[in-house]
Amino acid sequence: MSSPITGPARDPLWRMIALARPRGVRFVLGVLWGAAATGSGVALLGVSAWLIAKAAEHPPITALSIAVVATRALGVSRGVARYMERLVTHDAAFRTLADVRVRVYERLARTEPVRRFRSGDLVSRLVSDTDATQDLLVRGLTPPLIAVVTGGATIAVCTALYVPGGLLLAAGLVLAGLVVPFAAAALGRRPGERQAAARGELSTALVDTLYGAPDLIAYGAMDRAVARVQQADTELTRVARRDAALLGFGAGAAALITGLTVWATLLLGVAAVADDTLTSISLAVVVLTALAAFEIVAPLPAVAARLGAIRASGARLFGVLDTPPSVDAPETGPALPDGPAALRIRDLRVRYGPGEPWALDGVDLDIAPGRTVAVLGPSGAGKSTLASVLFRFRDPDSGTVELGGADITAHPVDAARAAVAGVPQDPHIFASSLRENLRLARPGCGDDALWDALRRARLAHEVEAMPDGLETEVGSHGTRLSGGMRQRLALARALLAAPRVLVLDEPTAHLDPDTRDAVTADLLAAAEGYSTLLITHDLAGLDRVDEIYVLAEGAVLQHGSHADLLASDGWYRDAVALTNGAGAG
User: Residue 532 burial (CB < 10 Å; 0-12/13-18/19+)?
Assistant: First the structure.
């Protein structure tokens, strides 16, 4: 087990830079190309200054030929080197960004972090905060390294020509390239944190308003929702203005330092020329080189002002990557046994935190091959927790879940979910066609298999009546389908996956009584031949299952067939009597 990250390595900026370690050689090459481009620009102005000053003395043309060629060469090399620097650094940054996105997607694919963040905020973390990695590498890492290499070389050349001018240039570059950026970074840290948070809040408010629009309109709350979006937008705009002010401060301070340094160098140089300690040609070279040298540090204040926002984005990014998993499973392992197999649960105990009550407290349950078993209980009985364990969204705190004698928690989650799958309580229907929603379970399968699954789920007749058939667009979250059709579509998708144990978690929770009875009958008919677990709080259709487990407060109260439980005193018979009495009334 790796040791926890401590000290400076915990800083999001350092951790984001560490993500680029596999591309380190490319970034070094990019810095060298950038130094060559910036150095060519500075040298171009210096050589041009020498050429103009020397030409004023009317020397033979041959004395200027080398400078003329050098000027042309530097002009060409500057463009070529800048292109190569952008090509290499952006290629390395994009490759690193792709690696980071894959890591984030892989983390989210394990499903646990999705449940711990608001949807809009998670989108912001996935897009804007992940993209901040590229921003840091291209604009935050490369320019300072280029400035160190090129600035040192420029100071050395100017010092060799005129020591006071070189020292003055060094002081100016330190002020413009170090002091001003540090001030900008210090001033921009808190606004940067607020900007990342404000971006997430705006994204969340927009998503909530868009997806909740029907309910918001029905309850007259749309104005409040829009006001929330406007408030989030106002806050983000205010922070962005503060960020723009910091950028203006950095640019203005750098320009002021540049002007003062050039003027001071010029005044000292003129005095040196008057004292015959410096030639007029060298004066022109030193002054124009000093002017060009500030191009080296020009990007740094803006970079530093953005570090606060980048650091905050990095913290939000690692907030996703560092989320501890709810499921501890090996990446690889032996395959689960093939063929019909019994599901056996023994002494299953689960709770959601230390000191919390047990959501499941010693549950024992068996599903024989080809049998249909129902778990019945009121809300809060632990039924959804049982489904989460079977779907491998949670690990048991103790106890075992075995399929054919093999503990599913000891196998990779993908293998376990392929063997034990079904219809969750609130199945997601994607904003795509019926065909693509079905193929999610078995990519690339033919239409014959799709129609077979639809027929088994009692949905084929409705799809055949649609003008576009399998190409029918279902809308966002399946809004173009009725509640019963959405459940049947989810069941057809589960049947295409062909699990060994089919789990139906509250499949009729959001349906009216008439639809609920019909959907339950269809689901149980479609599940014939499967080892099926029906998790429900509804009594409809339970006379068709083989066994019933009554669950309350995380424990099994009763177990037996429908007839056996009706013949015994207890929760089940009382619930049936109450339901029949309500129906008769």
Answer: buried
